[in-house]
Amino acid sequence: MVFYEEEEDFPDHMLMSMKQFKIPNKKLNSIIQSQAVMGGGSSVFSFEIDGLMKACEARMVSRMSDMIKDLESRILEKVDQNDQNTELRITSFNSKYVGVVKELTNVQMKGHTLFVMDVKKVSDDVNLKLQELHDDMVREVGVVQNDCATLHKNVDIICDAVTKYVTLSESLSPQITQLSTTTNQKFGGGGGYLDAQRSKGVGAKSCYIFDNYSRVYLTKVYTV
């Protein structure tokens, strides 16, 4: 069994670790060759080979541990860098989002202010129109009330006149009856005397019993 010193094709990050085992390989080859020349096994050589193998294993474990740590460190750095980039993107997005929200809030506040102004203007116009309508209605109601008062006064006057007329008629009815009877007795009833006077060319005159207060003709009589 011989360990060759020629290098094999390993990746770049593994090549240096393999070079570290050249010296142990040379020692191992010399020990094996010496054992073959001497023609027999020796516990000393076996012990030395075991020590060299353990040393190689320890170096490989150490190197692999270093490689793993280096790989973990690189991964953590990459993750940290990605986290930083993500945090920067989040911060940038948050800044843009806050700016957009602030702008929208300002637009909404301006719109609300304009809306409130429009509502107030419409409310003022409506209140003005309602006040004008109320004033017009008050004036119209005042006119109607005045007309009603005047109408009531006229109705009261008419009622008083009718009442006085009825009262006067009732009080004059006996006198009119007596006057009619006297006239009939004087002129012979039927108006013969008046006819005789008319035949003589004497014109008959008419007169009325007039109520000065009610301005109503109560009756009509004939005189000569």
UniProtKB/TrEMBL annotation:
Superkingdom per UniProt: Eukaryota
Protein's name according to its UniProt entry: Uncharacterized protein
Source species taxonomy: Eukaryota, Viridiplantae, Streptophyta, Embryophyta, Tracheophyta
